[in-house]
């Protein structure tokens, strides 16, 4: 009888572990939009926010490694991936930040390691402006706190106009060439197709609103100077969208932050060189007691 009970208890524990590790997903209603989220792993919460014009699947290779140690939450910003948005509404970094905080509320997450790539990094800083108490740590990936320059404003408005006139698929070649290096585009077809596929999933209203948010974003450097949680900044050595010098500037603004420059990577650094990125995050998290 004792042996039988042991088997039952062991089986129950195994079932509980499997249930805890099984991915969970859902939608949160926020201001007329439905924001999709996915949760994988257990432990300290880690929220990851994608850049323009991608979706939460962009972090797939990172979640596979990080969810062994963290409860990793990814979201699709409104209109991207499986989320919805209302056409004609203005896009703003603040709106996206509020959406991400609403997902944390829905999941009962008071504090998390919060990070984002490119526009996702700007959203992360905006979240810190609004609710610094929700942060255990911060990840800033291939991003900048600078306001959009006149040149950058024209670029994002041009992307929006092209998508409006010719469809979302028409912007794919222009964006992919800056997302991943030429070597990767030539020699790693699956990576190229992966990034292209993410962009093609974006709705036209999402592209319009996201481009407007990027073009119209304000100066986040004052926010960066107030960051007091452990912060890791990661950038690809060959990033041409937000070059290394901008990450260096971020590091100078955020006291005690760490900068990691990853070789053989462009803007999509955490996808193009996922193993190096994952190692950098886990090593940093261990060193600052977030793991």
UniProtKB/TrEMBL annotation:
Claim: Chloroplast is one of the keywords in the record: no
Annotated signal peptide: 1-19
Keyword Signal: yes
Domain of life: Bacteria
Domain AB hydrolase-1: 45-271
InterPro entries according to UniProt: AB_hydrolase (IPR050471), AB_hydrolase_1 (IPR000073), AB_hydrolase_fold (IPR029058)
Keywords: Signal
Stated name of the protein: Pimeloyl-ACP methyl ester carboxylesterase
Organism of derivation: Deinococcus yavapaiensis KR-236
Taxonomic path: Bacteria, Thermotogati, Deinococcota, Deinococci, Deinococcales
